Amino acid sequence: MGSAALSLLLATATITVAARQRRAEAARLEAARLEERRLQLEELAIRRKALAHQQRMHWELLARAIDDPSLAAVIDTYDKSIPVEKRRQFFYANAWYVHLFHLYRAGILDREELYRYLREFFQSPLFREYWEASQGQRATLNESSDEAVIGRMVDGLVMDLDEADTDEWWVVGNPPSD
Known about the structure:
single chain, 178 residues, mainly alpha, 0% strand
């Protein structure tokens, strides 16, 4: 009887220790998962902050170019036969396009929302002229970059708008779903 009781006591102790070890391991895994998630969120916040800073810098530099034609000459890659005033308007259109693009990259807009905003912007003949005039700039992008992918989406949108047989532009095209 003593030996059986001792065996039972030993088995119970072993089970208890094993259960404690499983709980401790589960707690360690949960802590590691939470730490990994915290680091992911921190990285996302840093990335969004960097994108916001980049957008501010882009706007400041572009605003200077819009205000001062001598500075605009530094970044002006548009056809020189385009009047200076129209090229300044193209810089402004670019500022709006980049603004929307950064909202997309920051996760504030999804691709469908970006598409809907751009569909509205492309009702402006000047915005369309800007897009056509900047075709060479987009051609230099890495084909797999976000900018190039969105540029191709916009090219499709412009084609759909051009081919539409309706004045109801807000229903033209098929917004992408993410």
